[in-house]
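FW: tagging you since you asked about this chain on Friday. Here's the raw sequence from the shared folder, copied in full. Didn't touch anything.
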Amino acid sequence: MTRAISTAVFARSLVKRAPVNRTPVEPRPLYVRAGAARIDEIPLTAADGTRLALTRIRADERPRPAVLLLHGHTTSADMFVLPETRNLVDVLLDHGYEAWMLDWRGSCRLPYNESAARYTFDDVALYDIPAAVTHIKNAIGQQPLSVVAHCMGALTLSLSMTAGLVPGLAGVVAQGVFLTPKLIDRARLRMTLGGELLRRRIDHLPVDFRKVGLRSRYALLFALAAKGAECPDPTCQFLHNNAWGVGASLYVHANLHPRTHDRLAELFGAAPLWILPHLRRIEFARSVVRWNTNDHRYRALPDNALDHADRIDCPVLLVSGSDNQLWGESNKLCHQILATRQPQLGVRYLEIPNYGHLDTFLGRGAAVDVFGPILDFLDETCLLDRYHHPAQLDPPNGGGGHFSRGQGPR
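HL: got it, structure written out here
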């Protein structure tokens, strides 16, 4: 059942711990800005019984090209609808698209990262993303569907695509990482050594110091993150100065709006450590590889996604900030490899100067610096898909604070 929401939802609620992944869950509300857009929250259940969350945002009832937005691990669909900035959904609606946002099982709007319902990235690729794509295609009919994916959302999408589970997309934008994950050196070393030690003692790493306090077993990790940090906020230190204890940084600090900075503990959830073995296997292989190699339920997934890149059947734009202090030059490497091995794909690479990782979406200037090239790519690929150009549609009215492409608050 779909329910329309006509006003913004600002209430936050705690999600109850789910003992197994088939337990019905209610995702916590989104933070969205009030306006003329229609927002539909759609319950979605993956084929393995896991309850997910799908959100559709559109200006009106007219048929429009659709864009599915996939968040990164431990974030959520909130990252695409920041009310304090001109966000990606604002831009898509103004330019004739409708937006769909999937909260897959790694979302902080869902309880699975802190529950006994353990999963791997295989589950996201096999169950979550195909379920969302199928639902959206049934809803939009012959309209083209594109995907904009961030971090682990993009990585798991690559596994779905090379398995042939999501054919017929108009185009894909993958930010940060895609088929060739390569962590920066210090993050790789700390994940290998420190991650294994931590995993034997704790299940997950929280990011909100207010919920754990000085007497918790996590206090030392927050203390280490604070070392040498310029920002006094403990959550920011944990994410920017020493992300999840592996020495990475998730954004360029100066690129965040002050309100976004204050909301970091809401925008990020706990990181499960039991998923580290799969992440290590992926990173060591320099490719997206399947974890469940001996489980027949996952036989549809390739053992190594890069070896099956020829199954990708749509244009791909690889995006990365020039100062990505998590995945480094992973997408640049991916572009070089695919240009050599699969030149027929015509994969492109775009580097955004003075941006890091998450600030390509969360940054207060992203509407100016990042979203324009993404829109150009989406427009072009929709034309190649032989459908009408979104620019032929009248932009929606009454959404509040609309800007033309290349404009927006900094």
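FW: Residues 179 and 258 are 34 Å apart (CA to CA).
HL: agreed, and The chain has a mean pLDDT of 85.
FW: great, closing this out.
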